[in-house]
Design brief:
By secondary structure, the chain is an alpha+beta fold. It has one helix spanning about 10-35; strands at about 45-50, 55-65, 70-75, 80-90, 90-95, 100-110, 115-120, 125-130. It has two domains: about 1-35; about 45-130, Porin, CATH 2.40.160.90. The radius of gyration is 25 Å and the shape is globular.
C-alpha cells in the first residue's frame, strides 16, 4: 500500500467529520460539567447538631427557590426557634439566624442528603452537621 495525498474534496469531508465529532464531544462534556454543579434540592426538614462554646441539637425547616433558602431553625441552646435565610451555590452553603446572630457556612454532599461546616456568633464559634429527614414526599 502507498500513501495517497488528500484531495480538496476529501479534506473538506474530513474537516466536516472532525467538526461534527468535536461538537458531540463538547456538548457531552458541557452536559457532564453542568450535572456536577447542579444546585442540590435542600427543601424540607433537617436534623443536626453543633459543638463549640454553644453545643446542642437543631432542626431546620427549609423552603428553597433556586439557590435561595428560607425557613426556621429550632435550637436547643440557646433554646428557641429563629428565622433563617441563606443560599446554596453548588455544594457550598451559607445561612444565618438573625435572632441569635449566628452565621453558618459549609458544604452539602453531592447527594443533597447531608451537610456540615462551621458556625460563628460574635466571639463564639464551632462546627455543625446535619442530615435531611427523609419522608415519602421528599424521597
Amino acid at each position: 500500500m502507498y500513501w495517497k495525498p488528500c484531495t480538496t474534496r476529501s479534506r473538506r469531508t474530513m474537516l466536516l467529520c472532525f467538526a461534527v465529532l468535536m461538537a458531540g464531544v463538547c456538548s457531552t462534556a458541557a452536559f457532564a460539567f453542568a450535572g456536577t454543579t447542579q444546585t442540590p434540592k435542600l427543601g424540607g426538614m433537617w436534623s443536626g447538631s453543633y459543638t463549640g462554646r454553644y453545643a446542642g441539637t437543631f432542626t431546620i425547616q427549609w423552603t428553597q427557590t433556586t439557590s435561595r433558602l428560607r425557613g426556621t431553625i429550632a435550637l436547643s441552646n440557646p433554646q428557641g426557634t429563629y428565622t433563617i435565610t441563606g443560599s446554596v451555590n453548588g455544594t457550598g452553603i451559607k445561612f444565618g439566624a438573625v435572632g441569635v446572630g449566628a452565621l453558618y457556612s459549609g458544604t452539602v454532599s453531592r447527594s443533597g442528603l447531608s451537610m456540615s461546616g462551621d458556625w460563628t456568633s460574635g466571639p463564639a464559634h464551632g462546627s455543625w452537621k446535619a442530615h435531611k429527614v427523609l419522608t415519602r414526599k421528599n424521597q
